[in-house]
Structures are given as structure tokens and as C-alpha cells.
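Worked example (supplementary).
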Amino acid sequence: MRAADIDGFYTDASTLDAEAHLILDYRIECRGDPRVAAAHLCSEQSTAQWRRVDVDEDYRPRFAAKVLDLEVETELSGTSYPLLPPVDGPVSVCRVRIAHPHANFGPRLPNLLSAILGEGPFFAPDVPLIKLLDITFSDSFLAAFEGPQFGLDGLRERWQIHDRPFFFGVIKPNIGLDPEPFTELGYQGWLGGLDIAKDDEMLADPDWSPIARRSALLGAARQRAEQATGEHKVYLANITDEVDRLLPLHDLVVANGANAVMVNALPVGLSAVRMLRKQAQVPLVAHFPLIAASSRLPYFGVHTRVWTKLQRLAGFDVVIMPGFGPRMMTAEDEVLEGIAACVEPMGPIKPCLPVPGGSDSAVTLPGVHEHVGNADFGFVPGRGVFSHPMGPRGGAASLRQAWEAIAAGVPLAEHAAQHPELAAAIGTFG
Amino acid sequence: MRAADIDGFYTDASTLDAEAHLILDYRIECRGDPRVAAAHLCSEQSTAQWRRVDVDEDYRPRFAAKVLDLEVETELSGTSYPLLPPVDGPVSVCRVRIAHPHANFGPRLPNLLSAILGEGPFFAPDVPLIKLLDITFSDSFLAAFEGPQFGLDGLRERWQIHDRPFFFGVIKPNIGLDPEPFTELGYQGWLGGLDIAKDDEMLADPDWSPIARRSALLGAARQRAEQATGEHKVYLANITDEVDRLLPLHDLVVANGANAVMVNALPVGLSAVRMLRKQAQVPLVAHFPLIAASSRLPYFGVHTRVWTKLQRLAGFDVVIMPGFGPRMMTAEDEVLEGIAACVEPMGPIKPCLPVPGGSDSAVTLPGVHEHVGNADFGFVPGRGVFSHPMGPRGGAASLRQAWEAIAAGVPLAEHAAQHPELAAAIGTFG
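After joint prediction of all chains, the assembly is encoded as:
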């Protein structure tokens, strides 16, 4: 890029038509002049070539992504992560805020992803390392999206769950287990106090547990559990499958009594989820396979907060995400940022329910509640319910007892003295 | 995991039912005993819990992923990339080959991705860094997939392009340019010798260049170019859009005269591509946005070879990928591995056409041809055609002239003496 061309990729917020742009926050490690590198980053994600040969024209004023803010944080003698082919010499670590005109692609998730995470950002000259840290949408862009159909408030109303977390349980074992005993595990979990018994994200529609049969059994068991407990109960069926089966499977499992469906968001694709959302009769729940492959490293890829916002935009009512504690390899701040991304204001798009998960049990509930700071979350043990020594009914009961203790401001150990399921959870998982 | 449980996640190739398994090659950096870490990696991606409480059963023999081979390459004092939260202490760098029973999920791309790149591999205890290096399918798994409809040989036959590379050109400028002048650029490129004039991967269906109008203009221009040149010409329309618009857009652009369609594979989702493949009347071309976010780092994420194999499996006839040279930040070996992944034997799945691209022009053609080692590739300049000082007709002509030189074993510079377009390309891009 010639020196005279660089200014065309800079603007300031005071003159920007904010409604016409998305705001993108990237962290980059760049070679050479950061001002040039940031201009490349804008050019490559928008008007890489902004005029025809021998024509006096310039598409940048209306169509170029433009730098709003560029801050050099530090200089390093080389990239934070060694690369192949090697990148030699010093780099500048920068935060760059870019305004991208969304009319370049319109309110379409695949085209949005192609612009903000495509060849532009990841192959901009002299920008070998880049991470998209955040995205902020304008209301005019959001207006074209459906977002969650029910959202956090809608789920509370629909399932009559108030002033406490939503108690999910991942039925285990699942890979290999026949539908009949699998259903019995879920049923016992509901009786013990689970709100939502769910399929594992890897259990979909295999020959040895066809979803038609599994959902029929669990749909019927759910209704029995509702009669037995007088509470709303949810069977969350995993309909993750090829895209052309999403709608038929949704219809099938709902007819069979499933009253929420789970989709592994990135493996299926966010746009297919948006398609499903337009037809869905029940809440949509996201699971997180594939996300870590682009999000784990602090200085490369995509921040999980961005993936969470995009899942909410695609229409998920619930977003399951890696939660607190060392098991899920996610920094506490990042978990909190993901939770915030579910519930913070987002124009006309409803809040969704965050479910930070990972090796939970009654024992971890106080800590998760304390981290979140309120009861607007889902709690999703697997083993904590289904490997409980008193079985899933005892495991589920231990969750409710732990919540009673929290709500009463009583230590778990004290409450456990009168509650053997909680005592057993502490003994096993504590 | 208890010591006695580990053996259930190991097997050897001599006793394995090879047809029933996929083979996964991971590089991991793990803490503690590598044998335990590799068992966790298998457990988490398959039978994480393999028995019910108080039931004497074991789902591992049939359903567990199992280590076939584990090789400790070296020990490091810490992970290659610092992580948050920090991973303290020494790690072992290992290659681990795993056999995964594909009946756990069946021939479904989203479920395959969920198993091999999901919570299992990326959240296995004591495995903070992992990269999926390769995947090998058994014929029994592949038999359920459609793969490319035309494939490399079918494209040569359909478009009568023999004994030379396929010459693509990315029409530029594109972001902001009206369909009429955009079409004229493509038309001139065809006259000059392009086989395929293509939309940029960021140009889809915006208000300022509706794909209905653009494809009608280019479809008509393509037919005029065929009449003028006596050659087959291809307009490659980018139908990347929300999933529920893929089939309608395919039908629209084909009716308008587009004779190939491009889809940004990961932004749209591989499964949606498979859905499109079942209905498509024309060749499908993949573009690579989003892939680098999980593939650039040598020791984390997913190797591009895996993404290429999966794109071929989803049914793409052509896979555009980052090519040779420093501009595309991809090691030469990795480009060659991606090309091999397009054409190597893959059971009943046809070979597809590899298109290694990035800042190409007539000047880079000899190098790309030499690297590939044959003419079974696509060549996809943008500026090399559309910023050529003699315009796109001259730019396209310079590609054909460069190929004449290569085919005749003559240096470009020598051939340029009688070919002003090639001479101008050398002067501009050399």
C-alpha cells in the first residue's frame, strides 16, 4: 500500500455513521509500521482493490472498513507464538478498533463471518497473529435478526423456574447405552429434582440409540415425571445432525415429547441454526464443540465472547459454554465475559441463558453461584448427578439441597447433616 | 482415571476392525504420564462414562476410541504456547494415533466434527495443547458420502480443459462496484483467456450488487465470450448466504447462466454444503474464510489437510486454499499436503481440483507449476489479471502466454519478447 493510500482506511468516531457499521476489536501482532498494518487489515476485509485500472474512482469512502482507534501496547522481539514459515524480527502488539460497513454483506451470518474472520483479517500483510476480541452490532444490523425465540425470561415463564438456577443433567453413560435404561436414568434424575435431563452432545442418532425411539421413551417419561412431581420437566434432545435433517428431527422429537432441542452450534453451522430458529416450536440450546480450536490461545483466533454473541444472534435460547475451574481450561474472566455476552443489552435481541459447565456437582454450585453473582444461569452436571452413589435421583436431589443451603445462607456441610444426598455428594465429589 | 481403567483405551492394529474405525492423528502436549493423558483423550471423545452406578457393564470394548500408537517425541519445561489459566510444569510432546468407532455417530459431518474436534479432544484432562494433524476414513464410512459430483476429471471433461491448469480470475474491484462494469471486467478476462471469472468470496448478494442482476449479466456475457472464443467459459457465482437461501440462490444463478457456484465452506458449514451437493446441477467451489483461525499455529487446532479432506467429503469439486509464497503465511509443505488431500485416493470419493492461491500473476505461474509438479491445479490471480496495465484482457492473456512458455520449456522473459501482455505482467508484477 502506498503511503498516500493509507488515510483512506482511517476515520474518527465523530464523523462515522454508527448505525451503518459494526465495530470490531482485534488484537494484532504486526511487523513494520502499525499504522500501515492496520490499514492493510481494513483493506483486506473490505475494498482490497478500490478502483479499476485507468478509472478515476474510489470505493473506500462508502465501502472501506476503517480504523477508529489504534493503540500500540508493546513491542516484542518476535511473535508470541513461533510460526511456520517463520516470521522474523520485532513486532508491535496493538489493539485496533475497526468500523466495518455492514451493507458490504448485509444481515447474513456466513457473510459476516467471511468478512470479520476470513481471508482479510487472517491474511493481511504484516499481520501474522490476530485475535478478534469483540464485536459490537448496531441496532440497524440487529433488526434483521430473530434472536432467541424465548430468551431467559421466556424460559423462566415457560418452565416456571424462578429465583434459582436451571438444573440440567447430562444423562450418563450415553455412548453405547440402550434407550430403555438411558430413559430410566433421566426419569430418576427428574424425580430427584432435575429440571432438564439432556442428551450428551455426542449422542445424536446412532443405530444403537435411534433418536426416534429415545425421544419417544424420554418424552413419555418426562410427562410421567411432571405428574409425579407437579413441576415442569424438560427433555433436551440432541438433534445435531446433517443440516437437511434438522427440521425433520426437530418435528419428530417434539412430537415425541421432547420440549427443547440441542444443536452443536459450530459443527452444524450458525446459519443452519438460524434456519431452525425460524421454524422451532421449542427452545434451542447450544453446545460448544469446535469453538476451543479457534479460541483457546490468548493471542490468536477468536475470543469466546464473540462466538457467544453470534450464537445468541443465531437464535439460541441457551448457550452452554466451558465454565469455571481448572477442568475447563478457561480463565475466570473469560467465563464471566461469556456470561455477560448472553445477558447484556443487544438491541432488540433477547437475553439467553448462560450455562457455564464442566465437572460440576452439588459441591461446585456455591462457587459457580458466587462467580456468576446471581441465579440467572444453568447448572449442568453429568457425573455429579449420574455417578452419585445414591443414583441419579440422589444426585439430582443433592443439587436442590445445595441450592436450599445457598438460598438460606447455610454452609453446605451444615445442611448436609439433615440431607443424606447432599452428604453423599460432598463425600464423593468434595 | 484409575490405573486399571487405562488399558480399556488401548488396542493394537492387528486386532482392530479397521473398517469400523476412523484413524485420527493428534499432536498433543500433555502433563503427567502420557499413557494416562492419551487414555483421557480417548475416553473424553467417546465413552467418558462407560458403566452405570452399581451395574456390571463396560461399553469400552465396542464404543471406546482407543490408542493405536503413542510416541513421546520430546519433553518441554512448559507448553509451547503460554495459556490462560497458566499450565505449570513440564509437558511431554507426543504423537498419538487413535482408532475411533464411527458407529458412535454415523456418516454425519456435524457429529463427526463434534467427536473429533469437540469437548473430548479440546478438554481432555492434562492435554492443554492439541492439534488434529490428520484423519483417515475407512471405505465403509466413506460409502455413505456423495463426495464431489464432477471431480477433477469431470471438470476437465465438462469444460474441455486438458493438459494445463485451470485459469481462474477474481474480478476486482468488487466491493462497491456496480454489476454492469463488474460484468465488463469479467467479459474482458474471458476474452483474454480466463476459463473461470469468479466473484470474490466477500461479494455475495448485497443491495448494491444483487446476485440476481449480477448473475444475469455475467451469465449472458459468459455465453457471448464462449461464442467469441470458441472455448468453454465459466462464471463462478458466490452464493455464500444463509443456509435456507443456498438452494434458491443456486437455482437462480444457474438459471441466469452461472455454471459453477462458490460457497465459503466453514462460514456456511460443511453440512449445508453437503445438502447443496445433493441438489446441485453445477460444480461446487470452496473458499477458505475462517479456516486459518484454527489452523495457522503449528501446535494447536486443526491441520489444513483435515479441513481439505472434509471439504472434499462434503462434495466440493474445487477447493481454493492458501497457496505458495510468503503472502499466504502457509509453509510450502502444508500447501503440498493440502493439494495431496484433494487428489489422493479416498475410497469411492472422487478427487477434487486444488487451487492454491494468493497474489498470483503470470510471473508466479512457473513457480506454482513447479511446486505442484503437474498441471492438475487451478490458478487464481486477482490483481494479476485485473490490475494488469493492459486491463483484464491483457492480464488473462499474460497467463496463457506464461503457460505457453512453460509448456515449451522456454523462460518467461524470452517468451515475453514476442508477447507484450506477458512482458507487461513481468514489468508490473515481476
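Two points are worth noting when inspecting this output. The CA atoms of residues 76 and 127 of chain A lie 14 Å apart. The domain at 151-429 of chain A is CATH 3.20.20.110 (TIM Barrel).
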